[in-house]
């Protein structure tokens, strides 16, 4: 709690005052910032108690400004367990954004399509998720000081915002699949056998993030919605080596649709 207070006070002194909406941008999804009037920005490594982004394609900045008339705080780059952080550290920024005052949280990520009806370059609205990280961001001794220990996860993704995203997609002819996202530890990608297993247990897309942030948002009673950009097709019978540069390029290809969804949602919420 002391760390949360110190970090929050630092950011308020930097001008991060009462943002309405928090946004977490995933791999290759940084161009939303071009639609934002940036008022303040701070590098992660300058923020007290903040982790530092170690992945080369995650920029590592916290930005404050305006999108569609709403004050927002945006994470340009997120943290992952595979970087060596525990899930309390991975989700620390969510607690900070909540403490700063956000009332809604929008999350994006890049993921692989396990459902072979989904194609790379398309998007998936996350309806539900499976946590295969082997840990929980709520699994620590004093968690009850921050909220209910046994958080209900029967409806982890906000229904109103999800419905609005469906409506926006329909009105703008944007293909938007819906499905179950599974979060794995990484950083290695999956084997053919692992893809088959993930399909059997009900996953439509796989990635290495997002679920911890969703859990903490629910712990904070913070309405949250998430969209995956599908950057590769995980067909175990025709599996090809994955090139990270190609994944980033595919995320960039789908990014304009993701930006349109988020902008319209921000305007409405």
TrEMBL record:
It is an enzyme of class 2 (transferase). Residues 20-267 form the Nucleoside phosphorylase domain. Keywords: Glycosyltransferase, Transferase. Pfam families: PNP_UDP_1 (PF01048). Its EC number is 2.4.2.1. One of its GO terms (molecular function) is purine-nucleoside phosphorylase activity. SUPFAM superfamilies: Purine and uridine phosphorylases. It comes from the Bacteria. The keyword Glycosyltransferase applies. Pathway: Purine metabolism; purine nucleoside salvage. The purine nucleoside phosphorylases catalyze the phosphorolytic breakdown of the N-glycosidic bond in the beta-(deoxy)ribonucleoside molecules, with the formation of the corresponding free purine bases and pentose-1-phosphate. Belongs to the PNP/MTAP phosphorylase family. This is Purine nucleoside phosphorylase. The lineage of its organism: Bacteria, Pseudomonadati, Bacteroidota, Flavobacteriia, Flavobacteriales.
């Amino acid at each position: 709690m002391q760390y949360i207070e110190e970090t929050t006070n630092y950011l308020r002194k930097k001008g991060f005052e009462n943002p309405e909406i928090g946004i977490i941008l995933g791999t290759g999804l940084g161009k939303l910032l071009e639609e934002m009037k940036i008022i303040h920005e701070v590098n992660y490594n300058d923020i007290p108690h903040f982790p530092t982004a170690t992945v080369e394609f995650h920029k590592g900045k916290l930005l404050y400004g305006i999108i569609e008339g709403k004050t927002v705080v945006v994470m340009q780059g997120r943290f992952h367990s595979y970087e060596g952080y525990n899930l309390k550290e991975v989700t620390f920024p969510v607690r900070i954004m909540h403490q700063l005052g956000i009332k809604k949280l929008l999350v994006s990520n890049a993921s692989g399509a396990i459902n072979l009806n989904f194609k790379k370059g398309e998007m998936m609205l996350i309806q539900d998720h499976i946590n295969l990280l082997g840990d929980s961001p709520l699994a620590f001794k004093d968690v009850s000081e921050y909220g209910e220990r046994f958080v209900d996860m029967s409806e982890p993704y906000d229904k109103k915002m999800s419905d609005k995203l469906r409506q926006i997609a329909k009105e703008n002819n944007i293909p938007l699949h819906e499905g179950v996202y599974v979060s794995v530890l990484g950083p290695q990608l999956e084997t053919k056998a692992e893809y088959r297993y993930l399909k059997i247990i009900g996953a439509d897309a796989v990635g290495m993030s997002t679920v911890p942030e969703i859990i903490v948002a629910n712990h904070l009673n913070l309405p949250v919605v998430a969209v995956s950009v599908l950057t590769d097709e995980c067909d175990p019978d025709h599996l090809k080596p994955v090139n990270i540069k190609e994944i980033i390029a595919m995320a960039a290809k789908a990014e304009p649709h993701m930006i349109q969804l988020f902008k319209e949602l921000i305007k409405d919420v």
